[in-house]
Prior knowledge:
Keywords: Carbohydrate metabolism, Cellulose degradation, Copper, Disulfide bond, Metal-binding, Monooxygenase, Oxidoreductase, Polysaccharide degradation, Secreted, Signal. The protein is mainly beta.
Amino acid sequence: MKSIIASLVLAGAASAHTIFQQIGINGVMQTRLDYMRLPTYDGPITDVTSGDMTCNGGPNPLVIVSNKVATVAAGSQITLQWGHTLDVDFNTGMIIDASHNGPVMAYMAKVSSATGTPPKNGWFKIYEDGLSGGQWAVAKLINNKGKVTVTIPACIAPGDYLLRGELIALHSASSYPGAQLYMECAQLRVTGGGSTTPASYNIPGVYSGSDPGIKFNLYAGATSYTIPGPRPFTCSGGGGTPQQPPSTPVPVPTQEPTPPPPSGGGTVVKWGQCGGIGFTGPTGCVSGSTCIKVNDYYFQCQ
């Protein structure tokens, strides 16, 4: 797998960016790339109004989309792990350039299917870390080999969720757009839990370009930092307070019926495109992988 991934990430190899690419459940790291929606390019989103703010995309196309959903109990601890590229050695390789200081956050959204279209509305924050004791969350992340651990609220309802990990690099954020936002989503199925529905927000919509946590001079000697977005939700009733009014929910478009993969000869390497509307290339996958629908326009060998 490493050699295949390495060939996919050459475009991002010279940059100093990062990708949230692996999860752990109660201290046990899962197979790399499982349960994830991933780009192969490690670039940022800089427009906080972009629709790509949900789970990434746009300039960083999501070309690796797992068909697996991780089953976790409400109250479980989930470890999110970032790395510079998809084949980085977490123990010895770059996580993100040390100059890219800023906060680390995690959001969740309840969905009808964790492998479906990511929603724009329904997001609630469950974790945040910014600047404390003179140390940035990103510096802590680097020191911990790309890992940060969050807790799934024990009181939320069972069902499918997306877990959105987000890192904001502030080294160019003195003007807008300048902050670099890195986000990807993991696919979870929460069991147990309760019936609490957290206050939720739209993504995009939860941040604005004028927020003090988005437009920020990293080099002005600040000793405090206002993390953008609402405070994290807690089952005890704390958190969820917005720094700006929540936006109007955005409906998720209804997709047309899924077309069958087009016919074509040849074989496709794992994680390559093998079908979709308008696709005319080969539809056969190499041994050990299967052509899976990601969306109507993109089928992938997984």
